[in-house]
What we know:
By secondary structure, the chain is an alpha+beta fold. It has five domains: 98 residues, DnaJ domain (Helix Hairpins); 89 residues, HSP40/DNAj peptide-binding domain, CATH 2.60.260.20; 38 residues, Ribbon (Chaperone, DNAj Protein, Chain A), CATH 2.10.230.10; 72 residues, Urease metallochaperone UreE, N-terminal domain (HSP40/DNAj peptide-binding domain), CATH 2.60.260; 32 residues, no CATH class. 25% of the residues lie in helices and 26% in strands. The chain has ten helices and 15 strands. A hairpin with a 2-residue loop joins strand 12 and strand 13. The longest helix is centred in the N-terminal third of the chain and has 17 residues.
Amino acid sequence: xxxxxxxxxxxxxxxxxxxxxxxxxxxxxxxxxxxxxxxxxxxxxxxxxxxxxxxxxxxxxxxxxxxxxxxxxxxxxxxxxxxxxxxxxxxxxxxxxxxxxxxxxxxxxxxxxxxxxxxxxxxxxxxxxxxxxxxxxxxxxxxxxxxxxxxxxxxxxxxxxxxxxxxxxxxxxxxxxxxxxxxxxxxxxxxxxxxxxxxxxxxxxxxxxxxxxxxxxxxxxxxxxxxxxxxxxxxxxxxxxxxxxxxxxxxxxxxxxxxxxxxxxxxxxxxxxxxxxxxxxxxxxxxxxxxxxxxxxxxxxxxxxxxxxxxxxxxxxxxxxxxxxxxxxxxxxxxxxxxxxxxxxxxxxxxxxxxxxxxxxxxxxxxxxxx
Length: 371
Ligand SMILES: [Zn+2]
Ligand SMILES: [Zn+2]
């Protein structure tokens, strides 16, 4: 029997290497020499076994201690559970590779949760005010309904792989080690489809456009996100589906702007209405609304009609309809109107000139003779 190599030498680490360094070193070697990557290469297989043995000892503090003190003999004479029988490779791989295990055939093909999807939904301001039931058409991967996701033609069965008896891996005992490797017959799936389902070509999954109903809540705003659990893509191998996220985008309205839960609009009134006050009608989003103009209203004043804005999300009250006031000045006056306004200006002692052009004409140096 040839001399056994030193475990630290095999892993190419110092004797004082910590757990992490040892793990990294083994990981590197395991990837390089794994039998699945080196089919038929005996040298690689031996190196792989050697490294695995070294790692198995050095990762276990008691064994490492024995080895450090007494060398290989320490382990052979200790009655340690290590000597003599198969090492659980799944255990080692799980430790070293964690989630990356997939490619190494140490376990059966693992279930994979379906992808989550995002759907961007445009809604109108009216929908946000009234609420709406929306029907979404979501393209996604679904479990095949013809075969119930099994991939086998209707009436036939998925059969357990006869070579690995459903384990997905086959064991091989060679001296010191029991090696597990991916079953070549079923490629690690443990099951086989002999007569594939014609709808999904044996995949168990199909692409479909799903119709999904969603109630748009009153008051939602751009960026609001609905999470519909389980409405994403189907999972593989019996794993749960992903979720569907519906993200709201409220399309800008041509007449109204939104400020939180207030609706903003504008209304034009005459300068007489502004001065005297009165009642006007403005266009709300659901039809005409009455607005009281207080006497002496200034240009740009914002008047509110309570509770005629956007409902608060899941509340029974709404924001306001906010009306920004614009005041219109008449462009032309007939003689009678002009006379009354001059009279008004006189009463207030305001500057005016009814014989020689307007105030602005004078200011700009124009006079009647030029016209
Ligand atoms: Zn199918
Ligand atoms: Zn198999």
